[in-house]
Amino acid sequence: MKKIAVFASGSGTNFQAIVDSIKEGRLAAKIELLVCDKPGAKVIERASKEWVDTFVFSPKKYPEKSYFEAEIVEQLRAKNVELIVLAGYMRLIGDTLLHAYRNKIVNIHPSLLPAFPGKDAIGQAFQSGADMTGVTIHYVDEGMDTGPIIAQRELSIEPEDTLESIEEKVHRIEHEFYPQVLQSLIASKSENLQ
Description:
By secondary structure, the chain is α/β, with parallel strands linked by helices. Helices cover 40% and strands 22% of the residues. It has a single domain (2-193), classed as Rossmann fold (3-Layer(aba) Sandwich), CATH 3.40.50.170. The chain has 6 helices and 7 strands. The protein has a 7-stranded mixed beta sheet with strand order 3-2-1-4-5-6-7, with helices on both faces. It is globular.
């Protein structure tokens, strides 16, 4: 059982997909902690219903990023977290977390990176008239959505698609694909340890 922490800022649909995959036995992990930078976000309510401990903070209350990241690292170490899973965490990871969890932070992004990095990737793809988008799962590094790619899944954008229909299709892929990729990462890591 891999001990993971999920970082999220919003409604937490990917958090829920991960929880459901664990409950259904498709993901050999235990969520030790939800880290959320938006007090009042719906994901906090989801975590509470699932009896997952939370660390919720307001970044503006800290003089700089390294201060709240040091607190996060303390929380993660206290719970022996082995892998950080970003699931709609709308904040760049800084040096403090990167140093403590180098190559152990995974992110999901709603485009086929390197295309459409950053915020509103689905909107960027739609506005550009692209005929293809998708989902990328990658390791986190110092840049914005620039870390080594672990896996990608494509999605065709049809002429009749709207922004809303593309968002819906991307979310469906995310909710199935992220737990699958996390499980294969966990399985390959445990094989390497034997």
